[in-house]
Amino acid sequence: MASMSTRSAWRTLHYSAKRRAFQPPTPYRCFSCTRASQDQKHDERMTHFGFTNVPESEKESRVGAVFSSVASSYDTMNDLMSLGIHRLWKDHFVRSLNPGSPLSARINNPTQKGWNILDIAGGTGDIAFRMLDHATNIHHDVETRVTISDINADMLAEGRKRSLSTPYYGTSRLDFVEANAESMPHIPSESVDLYTVVFGIRNFTDKQAALNEAFRVLKPGGVFACMEFSKVDNPVFDAVYKRWNFAAIPLIGQLVAGDRDSYQYLVESIERFPSQEEFRGMIQKAGFMIPGKGYENLTGGIAAIHKGIKPVPKA
Amino acid sequence: MASLARLIPRGSIPSIKPSQFSRPLTTCIRASRQPSLRPNTSHFNTPLKQSSKRSYHSDLHPPLPPHSYTNSQTAILEAALSHVPTHGFTNTSLTLGARDAGFLDVSVQLFPRGEFDLILFWLASRRGLLRAKVESDVDFFKGDVDVNGKIKALILERLRMNESVREQWQDALAQMSLLGNIPLSLAELHALSNDILSLAGDASVDGSWYTRRAAVGAIYASAEVVMTRDPSVDMSETASFVERRFEDRDILAKKVEVIGQCFSFWGNTIVGVGRSYGLKI
């Protein structure tokens, strides 16, 4: 009896993801007309939400629901899921961008006003605080400022709460904006030095539109930098990684955050994100120049850093 | 085997008109062929006519550019080089160069390798300048007619190009010797010795192709180290160092030759003695 109940509990844990994907047919059907003509959303463009397809208009609210639900346990979950490695990635990302004007370059140059950084989907401020720390401590640059933009108010609230314990709280160097990255009319064209999006672009409904918008707001010579989950190149490591993703992460999500579906979505969206080469092609399509190979794999390709530079028109 | 068979017809390329090839084949050959493999002994006497005179592959294969940086990258790097004498091969020079070229501080992200890109660009662009100088100056090798004299003149000319960054070159050498940078540094050294030998008109096609490149690379690299500690203003000590290394090389070559002669003598003697005892050899 006891073993039966354990098994059924295990089954609930293990198979609820698959069961969720099953969508019951419409309960009522008018038999005198075809099913296609009954389907109201037939004409609307579809996009993927994890492994399921949803109408484009719905994806935003669904992703919103996911992140609202994970906002409070975001850091604990990241640590558990990546075994703490996400901190190393983020540190490496910021160090390679080297934000802030070096002292030697600021001397004799009063026009230098620090960098204007836009951190998209950076609600919890992970990257923003690191960048401000880097600019202040490495370059002694107290002019560089970061605007954190996120579509999700709950994530922004989490970031605001965290900013209380940083020296940047209440200064002009840190700003929070709730906005959709696919269209940011409140940000003027050619006003941003550095545009970063870390583990966020995966959730966008229209990634190409977001890239085009990034191209618009960046100054000529400005940099688009993106860190995102990507494709593992080693097949053996890939098998282990997939196993971890699909078996362990939803389970951890259920046990720690009490939310299996959100983490099921997370691993599915990682699986659906384009490969390094495809995403590089999308960055190029938006008009960016690609430095060197265009991407840098982290931990065998689990994550990758993509960069693009907006060209300067010939004088 | 199939790949081997595809390699063989390469020698006959010049006799075939490019139009007879399908497009992908010609581009594939163009990409795979190194300029150094061309026997260009003849173009030295008539450097000005070189482009029309080089019968072998000349139409199909314009000389490869010395580096593969894009226009924007080249603009920033060129501007950054002017800051090298004061700031060295550092990210500061790159940042200042980016500003001079109309870019932002953040645009140094164009260089994933950072300051090492600046060093590589210096090496590659100077190599290109050396080639351009030799090809445009008819009497570059005034008195030197033999290959060794030309090689020496080219090495000294290349070393003199480092004059303006002499103070910074030790840092650059340190950067180049970092583990991750060694493969690219060696590739660049090989490209330089390759260029020097082909400009000097060396046409060796046997094993000496390798030994000559290794020797020129070793002499140049060691001379660079000496140059960073050379107290003389006109780099005369470096020049005499190169002179001594060439003498060493000649002595070494003579030694190898003598040892070879010795072995062949002994071999012949043993065979002769064996035959005189009736062995069927």
UniProtKB/TrEMBL annotation, chain A:
GO biological process, one term: methylation
Primary location: mitochondrion
Chain coiled-coil ranges: none
Known EC number: 2.1.1.201
Source organism, top-level taxon: Eukaryota
Membrane topology value: Peripheral membrane protein
PROSITE patterns in alphabetical order: SAM_MT_UBIE, UBIE_1, UBIE_2
This protein's GO CC annotations: extrinsic component of mitochondrial inner membrane
Keywords annotated in UniProt: Membrane, Methyltransferase, Mitochondrion, Mitochondrion inner membrane, S-adenosyl-L-methionine, Transferase, Ubiquinone biosynthesis
Binding site for S-adenosyl-L-methionine: 124, 150, 180-181
Family: Belongs to the class I-like SAM-binding methyltransferase superfamily. MenG/UbiE family.
Function as written in the Swiss-Prot or TrEMBL entry: Methyltransferase required for the conversion of 2-polyprenyl-6-methoxy-1,4-benzoquinol (DDMQH2) to 2-polyprenyl-3-methyl-6-methoxy-1,4-benzoquinol (DMQH2).
NCBIfam families reported in the protein's UniProt record: MenG_MenH_UbiE (TIGR01934)
Identification of the protein by name: 2-methoxy-6-polyprenyl-1,4-benzoquinol methylase, mitochondrial
Source organism: Penicillium malachiteum
TrEMBL record, chain B:
InterPro entries given in the database record: COQ9_C, Ubiq_biosynth_COQ9
Keywords attached to this entry: Lipid-binding, Mitochondrion, Transit peptide, Ubiquinone biosynthesis
Subcellular location per the Swiss-Prot or TrEMBL entry: Mitochondrion
Gene Ontology MF terms in the entry: lipid binding
Alphabetical list of Pfam families matching this protein: COQ9
Pathway(s) this gene product operates in, as recorded in its UniProt entry: Cofactor biosynthesis; ubiquinone biosynthesis
One record GO biological process: ubiquinone biosynthetic process
Domain COQ9 C-terminal: 183-248
Gene Ontology CC entries for this record: mitochondrial inner membrane
Keyword Transit peptide: yes
Residue ranges, annotated region (Disordered): 32-68
Top-level taxon of the source organism: Eukaryota
Compositional bias segments (type: Polar residues): 33-50
Known function: Membrane-associated protein that warps the membrane surface to access and bind aromatic isoprenes with high specificity, including ubiquinone (CoQ) isoprene intermediates and presents them directly to Coq7, therefore facilitating the Coq7-mediated hydroxylase step. Participates in the biosynthesis of coenzyme Q, also named ubiquinone, an essential lipid-soluble electron transporter for aerobic cellular respiration.
Family: Belongs to the COQ9 family.
Name of the protein: Ubiquinone biosynthesis protein
Protein species of origin: Penicillium malachiteum
